[in-house]
Amino acid sequence: MKLFPAFLLFLLVFLPLAEARTITDAAGREVEIPDRIERVMAAGPPASVLAYVLAPEKLAGWVRAPGDAEKAYLLPAVRDLPVFGQLTGKGGTANIEAVLYAKPDLILDVGTVNATYSSLADKVQAQTGIPYVLIDGSFAGSAETLRKVGDILGVNERGETLATYAEGKLADLKQKLAAVPADKRPHVYYGRGPEGLETGLSGSINLEILEAAGATNVAAAAGKGGLTQVSLEQILGWNPDTILAASSKFAAAVKGDPLWANVEAVRQGRVVVTPSLPFGWSDSPPGINRLIGIAWLEKLLYPDVFTADLSGEVREFYKLFYQVDLTDGQLAALMKGSAQVK
């Protein structure tokens, strides 16, 4: 019995305790996180992308399973990770049991930050005992997001590398857009789904890339909010000069439908499918993946102003962010349906 206190002293002195630190997340919540994080669970799709580009080896699993076409553009080590579902947003499918089964050191949520998401974070953290961190996912804050989460995950050097890329891309965009007169900036409709009648209103995180590109989101005329359903009559009234189609089915239907024939974008052949592998370039999800989308979009909208080689930019981005070397065939597949963008 006399040896027991000495044994306890040995444990305290020679066996290091798990270290932790306190951070303040985007909602102003003080969250104690492990100093060393090995497994991250993403609460939603934007967090999946962010965790993957920063530290793929720490990603515990996917919100949804990548399809075969998507897997070809991802590192082999992450292609078949388990699927835990989505904790946050309208498509929430995960539950507390899934969180506990994943055994993460941290739950990461990236995107819109408001009272609803903050309350959910507090609830899940209280029920599981797992730290839950909210990160602002605004496009303009991409560099800050990469640095902050890189620090949280203990990959500061990689976070800085990716943040520097983001800063350079957005600075170049701002500088060149300043030379484009207001009357030369396009009016764009972005259609989601096979019928293309879902879009984002003014202030929607899903459409902020249009504003970043200096374009007018014609659906902003319907008010402020998030994703919403609109009618063909509304689109005819807005008369966009460019249509971005998230679905190739929608793009094909529009081009041959007489009901759309009088829309300026259709008359001018300006209906373009947005690339989407392994993640959407404009949306789906509205995450760090949009950094390559802005390069594609600026080339589409202002080809005389943005003259850099887009193919080279795509290859660079995929190598730097997704850590894959694109083949010529993969590059061609990415650009299929958007032949106007050279």
TrEMBL record:
GO BP: cellular response to iron ion
Source domain of life: Bacteria
InterPro entries cross-referenced by the UniProt entry: ABC_Transporter_SBP, ABC_transptr_periplasmic_BD
Keywords on record: Signal
Record domain Fe/B12 periplasmic-binding: where: 39-305
Signal peptide range: 1-20
PROSITE patterns reported in the protein's UniProt record: FE_B12_PBP
Protein name, entry field: Periplasmic binding protein
Species: Rhizobium grahamii CCGE 502
Lineage of origin: Bacteria, Pseudomonadati, Pseudomonadota, Alphaproteobacteria, Hyphomicrobiales
